[in-house]
């Protein structure tokens, strides 16, 4: 939006812009369309069915935060930066006022289109429960397009006002953020856990050595496995998100969508025995995994990171793991 208003005079005519806009929408939706054709039922479950089940799960667990409309609005208002939002609102009202001065219709086909898209995406963003902050980013591109659409068609004498307005809002927002930022040393300390996370992944990689390329590791927090360059088990690639909901899905659907439930874990792991287990994210959900690992002779190693441990089938690892670092199996 900032670039648009700075170089407003050099943009293509509306008919060309419309063609590019529609082509962009089609191109952006193409990967989703291909995925839908490959597996329609799984696609619909992932994009619709899962959210209903997750809402039911959270309700059963007694989770109340960001579950209803009022708590979602409070949540969004609390975490969104207030000044940029006000800047967007003021900018939009200002441009509408310029259109009025220019004796143009306040609403043309472009504005109606983007208002519709903005409304739909906002509803879709608020639909899942519980609401998370990144859902609220969904409507923002259409807000920018709506602003650009209101600028379109203004008399050239108004261009400088738009450019000054956007530059002022952007500069004030940047100044506010810089003013509110904490000192660099404090920020660096806050980022230290990422360093610890990386060191834990490096230790995990060192313990494992050079496993078979097809070796699989079980974890309900596969991000640490990915950081270590290890392959998550095919039944647990979605981590805890589907494992905690597995009991709410009938067995035939679980097999189709590759969704594990606690009752399926032993058979799944016996059929596709993993090299190791990364444990430490959620003790309750991981309990069946720990029981399986200990029952089948996996060796336990500490990663020195937030209580995470690695269970390894040591005879399956090509490089010998130093016994001195192994903890006694409990």
Report what the structure shows.
The protein is mainly alpha-helical. It has 2 domains: 2-181, no CATH class; 192-327, no CATH class. Helix content is 59%, strand content 5%. The protein is built from 15 helices and 5 strands. β3 (299-302) and β4 (309-312) form a beta hairpin. The longest helix has 25 residues, at 14-38. The protein is elongated and about 80 Å long. The termini are far apart.
> Would you tell me the structural class of the helices and strands?
mainly alpha
Number of DSSP helical runs: 15
Q: Which stretches are low in confidence, meaning pLDDT under 50 for 5 or more residues running?
A: 1-12, 180-189, 317-330
Gross geometry? elongated
| Percent range for β-strand residues | under 5%
- Summarize the main sheet: 5 strands, mixed
List the helices and strands and how they pair.
Layout: H1 2-6, H2 14-38, H3 40-60, H4 69-79, H5 82-101, H6 109-126, H7 140-151, H8 159-180, H9 184-190, H10 192-208, E1 217-218, H11 222-227, H12 240-243, H13 251-257, H14 265-271, E2 276-279, H15 283-295, E3 299-302, E4 309-312, E5 326-327
List keywords for this structure.
15 helices; 5-stranded mixed beta sheet; elongated; mainly alpha; 5% strand; 59% helix; disordered N terminus; disordered C terminus
């Amino acid at each position: 939006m900032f670039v648009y208003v700075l170089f407003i005079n050099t943009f293509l005519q509306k008919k060309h812009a419309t063609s590019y806009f529609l082509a962009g929408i089609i191109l952006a939706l193409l990967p989703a369309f291909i995925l839908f054709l490959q597996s329609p039922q799984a696609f619909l479950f992932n994009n619709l069915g899962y959210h209903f089940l997750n809402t039911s799960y959270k309700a059963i667990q007694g989770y109340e935060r960001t579950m209803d409309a009022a708590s979602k609005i409070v949540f969004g208002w609390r975490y969104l930066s207030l000044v940029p939002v006000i800047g967007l609102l003021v900018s939009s009202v200002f441009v509408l006022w310029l259109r009025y001065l220019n004796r143009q219709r306040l609403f043309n086909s472009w504005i109606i289109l983007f208002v519709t898209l903005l409304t739909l995406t906002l509803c879709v963003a608020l639909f899942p429960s519980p609401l998370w902050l990144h859902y609220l980013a969904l409507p923002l591109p259409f807000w920018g397009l709506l602003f650009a659409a209101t600028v379109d068609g203004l008399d050239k004498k108004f261009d400088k006002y738009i450019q000054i307005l956007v530059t002022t809002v952007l500069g004030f927002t940047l100044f506010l953020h810089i003013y509110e930022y904490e000192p660099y040393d404090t920020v660096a300390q806050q980022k230290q856990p990422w360093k610890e996370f990386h060191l834990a992944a490096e230790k995990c990689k060192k313990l494992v050595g050079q496993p078979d390329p097809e070796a699989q590791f079980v974890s309900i927090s596969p991000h640490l496995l990915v950081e270590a360059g290890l392959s998550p088990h095919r039944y647990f690639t979605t981590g805890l998100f589907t494992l905690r909901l597995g009991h709410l899905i009938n067995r035939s659907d679980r097999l189709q969508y590759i969704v594990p439930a606690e009752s399926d874990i032993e058979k799944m792991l016996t059929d596709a025995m993993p090299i190791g287990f990364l444990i430490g994210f959620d003790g309750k959900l991981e309990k069946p995994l720990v029981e399986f690992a200990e029952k089948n002779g996996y060796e336990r190693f500490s990663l020195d990171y937030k209580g995470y441990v690695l269970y390894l089938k040591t005879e399956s690892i090509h490089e010998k793991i130093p016994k001195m670092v192994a903890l006694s199996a409990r």
